[in-house]
Amino acid sequence: MTEMHWCPAWQLRSEILAGKRTAESVTRQLLERIRARDGAIHSFITLADDLAIEEARAVDAGLAAGEAPGPLAGVPVTIKDQFFTKGLRTTGGSRTLEHHVPVEDSIYAARIRAAGGVILGKTNTPEFGMYWRTVGYVAPECRNPWDLSRTAGGSSGGAAAALASGFGPLAIGSDAGGSIRLPSAQCGVFGLLPSRGRVPRHGGFGSTLFFSAIGPMARDVRDAATLLQVIAGPMEGDPLCRRDAPPDYLATLEEGIAGVRAAWWHNTVAEGFADPEVVATVRAAANRVTEAGARLAPREVVLETDGIDEAWKVLDFVDRQANLGEALMQDPEKREQLTPYARSRFDWAAGVSGTEYSRALLRRAQIIRHLEDVFADTDLLLAPTIGIVSPVVDPTDLTLRIPALVSYTLPVNMAGYCAASVPCGFVHGLPVGLQIIGRPNEEALVLRAARQFEKMLGWAARHPETAMS
What we know:
alpha/beta; eleven-stranded mixed beta sheet; two-stranded antiparallel ribbon; 16 helices
């Protein structure tokens, strides 16, 4: 039998509804496991503790009274510490908000609670999600469960590390340049970037006008599809979200991808810094798409991504400066409390001219049109999520930016497309990820493809030694 902490969310829910477990017992066991094992990993900033127990008891009481179970009935969920949770500390990973306790839920927390989910705690994040390592001044740096000398990635590193460590089956992350997909690949879990506007934005710190998307992370594709169904859908208070209702992701999950057109993305920009063994491992996994009945184009796709990194930097950094940095940097006390990477990004953004911002907008429009042309002949692009294994932590450097880390992910955010990172193998004993890229609002197809790879590759059976001892 599968140990409880490795059970997928759908199985836990089924057993809770069948009376084999209670929501309270599941929550208590996971809280105990986190307290016993997270000391070396630091995947959490705040545990919900008594609040989580109360929520679990309320779910059990509702089920006993005959209430209709929600899609997450009794299932523990973690939320990245950028997003508000009523009555539970939300710091944004920033010392300037170290004692901040929201008086309202973000839309994600509210929808998870309404679906019967139990919020287990707030996962570690760099300050306002602004760094590729999950490191800041509120909590110790989050380490990779597969190798504690390495980063768990960022900025949803705490969410990914918690999943890989068996600290819960479901997590909410966010992604403006790779922040769901990169740590998912680095920690060997599944992560989905929804397309622009598919999930509304509400109740958090650090989102950007064009790029930030909130999405599910899990060890199981069905679980991720369920969580996406819960958090997706229009919201009156977000003028940038889609107004149409999302499709039923679970209804089509097992339909397969027979006849779907797939192509391999040959990233020429990444050739100089990608690890050939990582690329070869991911390519071998991608080639198996034909086993699921998809058609893999014999000709590789080369995307025109020159200048994307610089344009993304302008748009992302300036938006963060506008909604966070300007006020913080004008307050001498708060400025002093910021991490070096946050200060340096805000300082840089303050010097960007309107001309530079306009050029970045044009580059964004160009990559959107380019991808539209590419996807006229294909349905899915396949590529590495990241061309290297997770880097070793250098605790002396908190400003370094590595474009190599995001060469495969930034173009997706720039265009507003959706993508998933699927665990697909190991290199040097560390997990690597296959990225599946789809058109806007085609999360259902990406999930169907991910489900086929899940069945072929069987990634859920392997766990880091730190989580097994």
